[in-house]
Amino acid sequence: MNEKNTNYHPIFGLLTIVTIVFILYILKSLLIPILYAIILAVMIFPVQRFLEHKWRFNRLFATLCSLLIIFFITALIGALIYFQLNSISNNGEDYTKNISKLYNDATASIQKMLNMNSSNTLFSSDLKIENILKNNFDKIGEFLTQSGSLISNLVLIPIYLFFFLYYRQFFRVFYYKAFKYKSKDFLNNMIDKVYNIQQNYLIGLIKVIVIVGILNTTGLLILGIDHAIFFGFFAAILLLIPYIGVIIGSLIPAMVALATKDSAWYALGVVAIFMFIQFLEGNFITPKITGSKVSINAFIAILSFIVFSMLWGIAGMILALPITATLKIIFDNTPGFHAYGFLIGDPIDKHLHSRARTRLKKWKKIRSKTSI
Question: Which residues contact 186 (CB under 8 A, 6 or more apart)?
């Protein structure tokens, strides 16, 4: 009886990955809200289970209660951000006057130092710096709320989330039928692994936001910037947006520093602190915390952020690590893809030692035995 050949050529695996990436890009608008709904379902499922098992709610009522909890938490965070931004924009008149005065003083100093004509376009009073700043203050919130396909996602995500929670047993049975050649113990183990990975990622993400928020707040408090706690944690949340997030997060408190402090060095200090904290977050904090939580190495963690941000933009940055960790589980349990699962995972100690050092240890061991 001939054994079934389960060896696949590595090129086949590579072509499969390329095909999957192409499909992910084409189906971007369909997949992103579904993946967000899955992550939210994982986050709220402990509450759902508590309501069903401890309080004996039926599944429909428990699902509706879970959705309401997410809605109220989201609405509370959104309201806090809105009122803080509204409070800042209400002081926009004072802020723009002070910034305009600093601008005029700086341009006057430059003109005097370089002996330039005041009619030069760069230094002309016709630029109306007050109007520029005033208009931009009003458009900050508008920019944040209109980025991406936010409106459609706000409608689709709750719908998907409801069905993921309410039909979860139905989807599990479909999973059993789709992979009926595998045992239920194996399939349940896969589900548990994916669920734990997603939950650990969310815990790690919250830790990153808290740590970065505390670091931002500490830096702003040292500089004496108004609304330090709000700006610190607001910037920490915006770090989820690649490249643009840190600019927005540092620009607002920097402008407030310009408007409320007697020196422009405070604004430069805000930008420098936020850039330094972002460097720590991107290279050390996030790869160490979320990377270790989802059992992938720091190199793949950083690479996944870059790849998925290129593939899906802002949404890809947020979804990068949970998708990569899920892929590791799939690769580890799929013939022909074990090498890719190995590449994503954490290296063990022997992979981090140089070959020369290992040979030296063996040589010393052999020499000690022969000397005896």
Answer: 333
* Cα–Cα distance for residue pair 18/12, rounded to 1 Å: 10
DSSP letters, 219-278, are HHHHHT-TTHHHHHHHHHHHTTSTTHHHHHHHHHHHHHHHHHSS-THHHHHHHHHHHHHH
Q: Rounded to whole angstroms, how far apart are CA atoms 271 and 163?
A: 44
List the chain pLDDT tens, one digit each, 372 residues: 444 445 556 677 678 778 888 888 898 889 999 999 999 999 999 999 999 999 999 999 999 999 999 999 989 988 887 888 787 777 766 667 777 777 677 777 776 777 766 555 444 544 455 555 555 555 554 544 444 456 677 789 999 999 999 999 999 999 999 999 889 999 999 999 889 888 887 888 888 889 999 999 999 999 999 889 889 998 888 876 656 677 888 888 888 888 888 777 888 999 999 999 988 887 788 777 766 666 778 788 788 888 888 888 878 888 888 888 888 888 888 887 888 889 988 786 666 666 555 565 666 666 565 555
| Contact by Cβ (8 Å): 234, 279 | no
Q: Which of 271, 283, 207 is nearest to 235 (CA)?
A: 271
The token duo for 245 is: 């997030």
Q: How many CA atoms lie within 13 A of 318 on its CB side?
A: 19
In whole angstroms, give the CA distance from residue 139 to residue 132. 11
